[in-house]
């Protein structure tokens, strides 16, 4: 005879979150006098992004951070290296690019 399976029974539907509550690992941080929503991602989309902190590419498959102003839209999202996001206050506002570097 097989052992009995004791699995918890779901009695109700899952609870709904309040309207203002964020999902997952998103959190709000203050930067440059503005509130930013920051979310770590695994980087599994297969796309290459350019980090605004160091102006280098983030290759597919590399974990990074997506950040956007709290009241911004989809077009305001930026993909950062995790180290660049953590060091954003220590970086200068003016990036040094080579002559042939693309301006994204």
Describe this structure in words.
By secondary structure, this protein is mainly beta. It has a domain at 24-45 and 61-90. 5% of the residues lie in helices and 25% in strands. It contains 1 helix and 6 strands, in the order E-E-E-E-E-E-H. The protein has a 4-stranded antiparallel beta sheet. Mean pLDDT is 78; it is low at 17-22. This is ATP/GTP-binding protein. Residues 9-29 have a biased composition (Basic and acidic residues). Residues 1-32 are annotated as: Disordered.
Main-sheet strand order equals 1-2-5-6
User: What is the H-and-E element order?
Assistant: EEEEEEH
- How much is the radius of gyration in Å? 20 Å
Strand content: 25-35%
Percent in helix: under 10%
Notable characteristics:
1 helix; mainly beta; 6 strands; elongated; ATP/GTP-binding protein
List the helices and strands and how they pair.
Layout: E1 27-31, E2 34-41, E3 49-50, E4 57-58, E5 64-69, E6 78-80, H1 82-86
Antiparallel strand pairs: 1-2, 2-5, 3-4, 5-6
Brief rundown of the structure:
Helices cover 5% and strands 25% of the residues.
């Amino acid at each position: 005879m097989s052992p009995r399976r004791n699995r918890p029974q779901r009695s109700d539907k899952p609870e709904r979150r309040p309207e203002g509550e964020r999902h997952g690992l998103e959190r709000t941080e203050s930067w440059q006098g503005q509130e930013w929503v920051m979310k770590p991602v695994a980087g599994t989309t297969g796309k290459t992004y350019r980090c605004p902190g160091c102006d280098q590419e983030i290759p597919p498959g590399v974990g990074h951070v997506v950040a956007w102003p709290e009241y911004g839209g989809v077009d305001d999202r930026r993909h950062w290296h995790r180290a660049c996001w953590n060091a954003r206050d220590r970086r200068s506002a003016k990036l040094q690019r080579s002559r042939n570097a693309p301006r994204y």
